[in-house]
Amino acid sequence: MHSFGYRANALLTFSITILAVICGIASFSDNFNSPSPAAQVQVLNINWFQKKPDGDDEVSLTLNISANLESLFTWNTKQVFVFLAAEYETPKNSLNQVSLWDGIIPSKEHSKFWIHTTNKYRFVDQGSSLRGKDFNLTLHWHVMPKTGKMFADNIVMSGYSLPKAYR
Amino acid sequence: MDWQGQKLAEQLMQLMLVLSAAVGFITGYVLGSFQTMLLIYAAGVVLTSLITIPNWPCFNRHPLNWLEPSVAEKYPKPQPSANSGPKKKASKK
Known about the structure:
Order of helices and strands of chain A: HEEEEEEEE
Structural class of chain B: mainly alpha
Order of helices and strands of chain B: HHHH
Radius of gyration of chain B: 26 Å
Helix content of chain B: 55-70%
Distance between the termini of chain A: 80 Å
Radius of gyration of chain A: 23 Å
Helix content of chain A: 10-25%
Main location (chain A): endoplasmic reticulum
Protein name (chain A): Signal peptidase complex subunit 3
Family (chain A): Belongs to the SPCS3 family.
Subcellular location (chain A): Endoplasmic reticulum membrane
Strand content of chain B: under 5%
Structural class of chain A: mainly beta
Shape of chain B: rod-shaped
CATH class of chain A: Mainly Beta
Number of domains of chain A: 1
Organism (chain A): Penstemon smallii
Number of helices of chain B: 4
Strand content of chain A: over 45%
Oligomer: heterodimer
Number of strands of chain B: 0
Distance between the termini of chain B: 50 Å
């Protein structure tokens, strides 16, 4: 503490160290949040279901996605990234995950929502195994923090299946 | 600043920064607002810097008393050559 510059430097470095510490504690406090999200997806319509010229199956769906993700938001949440994936098994792959729709929820006010949409991304198989296929629709979310650790989880909804013949 | 003042300024800086961080964190957590925490902490940092960095008079209340030149001349400084000779002889023995 010998001179003006010495004190200014000491204050600057100490204040930045303390800032890092409180951001770390803020991120740690997210562990005390026990979320209870809910979601439901209805497949309203199979718009078309074809085999593409290159041999892969493709299906277009109209979905109604409704969810209540309010409990995921904490004081340290910047936004929640949510996406819906169709998951199924084929002889070729033990797990296929195809992302059908995603969105960004910027705040708690927007986290209770429903959306009526066709699939944003194409539902294409690696091969031709989709006829009569049973699949799960899993809603995944990533809680992106303002500082610190990101939490990710999902809800699996099962019981969906594709028709046995092309349309 | 004098030595006592430097110690006081350093302790005051550390205490005030930790306090403003604690107050900011608790307020932000209770209100659920990250921005509030950062604003309170930033205000605390600015306040601390205004109090501890400049050379305020309160940090100069124990100034060092240097000797007057006329008094200092009465006590001659020790001569380095007279001391080193006898010391070397003692170690050789």
